[in-house]
């Protein structure tokens, strides 16, 4: 139990017999020892950043996860910056030697050297679960796939068309799942909402049974994405692999269907028809993997953000009041039943500042990984080619020297020109910046517009703890008491 609490990635439901586990463990320790010795002889000529490799295999992963589960993901980094007196330090995570680059200078270095000195890297669990797709590809291939997606649903024209559909889906969702509720947990319902939205807009799936089936599988899948890739019964990864297979089977059936009727405006049809200039089909597996990618990248990020916004709004009545005022004005300017459009969203400036502050205080993506493509000289140290690199939004966002009184909620810091470059990075930066940033902005604003205009809520657990697994979420799922607004617009 203690091991499971410490490290949410190791969660066997059925323990393996000791006769297998102990020899396996000894063999692994031996192998790691040999690998470490080899690594030391090949890296001794470098002036490595200060740091420690921690324990065999797990390195310092457990300390990173401990900070996450305690709701302070930046602690791992803050402790080491204090210990080593450097904004670049070395560690070992996911079985890899790794350099952590902290703060705006590190972010700038990584974001502006994509494809030159650094390339994308994901832990083996992600690569194995995702298969060949945008997230797992690098270089020219990734660029081409991203460009293709940005010409479809994620183009300005595509996004503008999405807004009324988003508004319709949201109204329907609130009427079905929120209307008439007294006490409820917000997180699971919001997760269902963002999943429903993704199914509708990415793949034009509207059939509720299929959405529910995929949703159940997807929740198993996502728990294994950032985990040790141990494909043995009982592990998170094992369950995730099986769930991914089942999702792929469902999606393959959809792809086949769509090939005979590729006229929908969703991204599934777009990827298939526009795979190359000759309008040939993209290979079925890649279409399916890209769909899985988009669901992975876009589902928990948005649902975590929306849940936390609800938490902050309940805790900060002054901020809630101002959001409501802005949203009421927009609703009052519309004809009865008229759906939201692009211009309406541009008017939601105050609401977006509030969302931006929530993304600063509790970033859904703490940071991500890169790999050194060459030996990198940085701040007097050398990071050897092949080492992995990590940047951290969580640390950058909590630095008092970049964000005055960083631990306090203050949406006004986003007025005017906002925070300095590379100090506010919830969506990353450079060529690998979030593909769904604008989609997420629209989805969040459309949801908030409908929510605050029709409902008020209070928290049933004041100061509910937030834990990162890996996204920040209230540990009890944010139980709330919901009330319809008396003067609903
Ligand atoms: C609040 C919501 C979101 C946040 C905070 C967020 C954050 C991020 C971050 C930090 C990255 C960069 C990772 C890196 O540098 O390696 C990223 C990448 C990505 N995001 Fe998002 N994301 C959000 C929503 C979405 C949505 C809704 C979608 C899809 C509709 C999406 C699709 C993607 C994709 C495809 C990538 C990979 C881009 C690439 O590798 O070139 N994201 N996201």
UniProtKB/TrEMBL annotation:
Spans through the membrane: 15-35
Localisation: Membrane
Record's protein name: Cytochrome P450
UniProt entry tagged with the keyword Transmembrane helix: yes
Pfam families: p450 (PF00067)
Broad class of where this protein is predominantly found: membrane
Reported cofactor(s): heme
Organism: Trapa natans (Water chestnut)
């Amino acid at each position: 139990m203690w091991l499971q609490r410490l490290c949410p990635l190791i969660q066997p439901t059925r323990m393996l017999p000791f006769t297998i586990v102990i020899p396996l463990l000894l063999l692994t320790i031996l192998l790691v020892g040999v690998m470490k010795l080899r690594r030391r002889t090949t890296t001794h000529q470098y002036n490595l950043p200060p740091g420690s490799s921690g324990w065999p295999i797990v390195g310092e992963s457990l300390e990173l996860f401990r900070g996450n589960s305690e709701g302070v993901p930046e602690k791992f980094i803050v402790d080491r910056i204090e210990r080593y007196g450097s904004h670049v330090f070395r560690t070992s995570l996911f079985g890899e030697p790794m350099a952590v680059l902290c703060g705006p200078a590190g972010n700038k270095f990584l974001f502006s050297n994509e494809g030159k000195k650094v390339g994308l890297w994901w832990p083996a669990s992600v690569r194995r679960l995702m298969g060949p797709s945008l997230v797992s590809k690098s270089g020219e291939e990734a660029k081409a796939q991203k460009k293709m997606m940005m010409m479809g649903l994620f183009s300005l024209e595509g996004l503008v068309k999405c807004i009324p559909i988003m508004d319709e889906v949201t109204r329907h969702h609130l009427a079905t799942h929120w209307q008439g509720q007294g006490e409820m947990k917000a997180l699971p319902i919001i997760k269902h909402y963002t999943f429903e939205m993704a199914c509708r807009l990415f793949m034009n799936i509207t059939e509720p049974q299929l959405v529910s089936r995929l949703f159940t599988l997807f929740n198993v899948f996502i728990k294994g994405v950032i985990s040790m890739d141990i494909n043995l019964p009982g592990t998170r990864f094992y369950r995730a692999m099986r769930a991914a297979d089942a999702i792929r089977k469902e999606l393959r059936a959809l792809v086949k269907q769509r090939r005979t009727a590729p006229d929908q405006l969703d991204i599934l049809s777009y990827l298939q028809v526009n795979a190359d200039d000759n309008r040939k089909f993209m290979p079925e597996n890649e279409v399916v993997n890209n769909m899985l990618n988009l669901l992975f990248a876009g589902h928990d990020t948005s649902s975590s953000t929306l849940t936390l916004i609800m938490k902050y709004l309940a805790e900060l009545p002054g901020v809630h009041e101002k959001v409501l005022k802005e949203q009421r004005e927009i609703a009052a300017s519309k004809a009865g039943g008229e759906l939201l459009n692009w211009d309406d969203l541009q008017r939601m400036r105050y609401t977006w500042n509030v969302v931006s502050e929530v993304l600063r205080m509790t970033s859904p993506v703490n940071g991500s990984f890169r790999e050194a493509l060459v030996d990198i000289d940085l701040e007097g140290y050398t990071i050897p080619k092949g080492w992995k690199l990590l940047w951290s939004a969580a640390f950058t966002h909590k630095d008092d020297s970049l964000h005055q009184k960083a631990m306090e909620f203050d949406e006004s810091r986003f007025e005017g020109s906002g925070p300095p470059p590379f100090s506010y990075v919830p969506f990353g930066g450079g060529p690998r910046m979030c593909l769904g940033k604008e989609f997420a902005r629209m989805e969040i604003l459309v949801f908030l517009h409908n929510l605050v205009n029709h409902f008020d809520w209070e928290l049933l657990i004041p100061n509910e703890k937030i834990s990162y697994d890996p996204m920040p979420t209230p540990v009890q799922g944010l139980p709330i008491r919901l009330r319809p607004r008396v003067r609903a617009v």
